[in-house]
small monomeric GTPase (Euphydryas editha), 234 residues
Amino acid sequence: MRDERASPSRVRIAVIGSSRVGKSALIVRYLTRRYIGEYHSNTDLLYRQTVSINGTPVELEVIDVSGSNADKFPTEQIQWADACLLVYSVTDRSSFEYAAEILNTLKRTPIHGSPAHAPAGTQSGMPLALLGNKTDLDHLRQVPTKEGQAISAVHGASFSEASVADNSGDLYRCVDRLLAEVRTPQRTRKFSVTKMLGSLIGGATNNSQTTRGSVVACPRVPAPSRPPLAAAAP
């Protein structure tokens, strides 16, 4: 059996947000510099790519958590990840409220196995980032920048706004900063990524940062049923 500790460095990111906020487009744009427009999937997607972080090759795995089941908290995906990127659309207040509820739930409800809740008295924890997408549609804006900045500050998450469609540099800086914050995982995983892999559905190569990559369909990871986030107990 393969020993993960002997493997090359690996970073796992969970990208979470409501449907149609541009999560898939954001991931593909970051990894390939290409724009895929609107894309909707009823299942989680796993992207695998080798990227360079501070000059060191790192195997990056990104799970695009489907927004089609937004009434269930993505416990298993967060347990799997080393960091979380929460995405909302600046033109959709409900998507911002969903991202805020995810941050609130992470803060008040410990998730066993997740580094987002470090032992009391320690400084380490799961790196978090909040990104408001679709700034190119500023005339349709429903979420002021200051609101995103405020909720991020409360929860210790980095904050950015960007336009995936316009290929804005803030998108790359946001993800690069999140990756730089991730430390090599030392904990035991709740499950292996190999158990999540479905059939290969595509691939892409980024000439500037990556050397290889693929996109894999993931059957949704079974997660405990929870009441709607707004009703979660403190």
